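hiii so um. not sure if this is the right channel but i have a protein structure encoded as tokens and i wanna go backwards to a sequence. like what aa goes where. can anyone help
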């Protein structure tokens, strides 16, 4: 399963990535994206993602702004403290 993590705190992103590796070795984190603009750019050119793990509040705004820009996205699991 191809996934991405959208998280602006490196420690939280690493922790989630490590947990995913432990849970299921078939989960492939394709990218860890830190901002709304970075995530939008990535999603425009990578349509093969099966699942998104996303923080809600990023340094440059709310992640909902990302998802309003795309019609066909995979499921999203919101991860937040």
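sure thing!! here u go:
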């Amino acid at each position: 399963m191809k996934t991405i993590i959208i998280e602006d705190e490196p420690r939280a992103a690493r922790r989630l990535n490590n947990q995913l590796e432990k849970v299921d070795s078939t989960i492939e984190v394709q990218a860890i994206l830190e901002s709304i603009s970075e995530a939008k750019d990535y999603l425009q050119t990578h349509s093969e993602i099966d699942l998104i793990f996303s923080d809600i509040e990023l340094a440059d705004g709310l992640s909902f702004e990302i998802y309003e820009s795309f019609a066909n996205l995979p499921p999203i699991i919101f991860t937040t403290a």
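oh and The chain has a mean pLDDT of 95.
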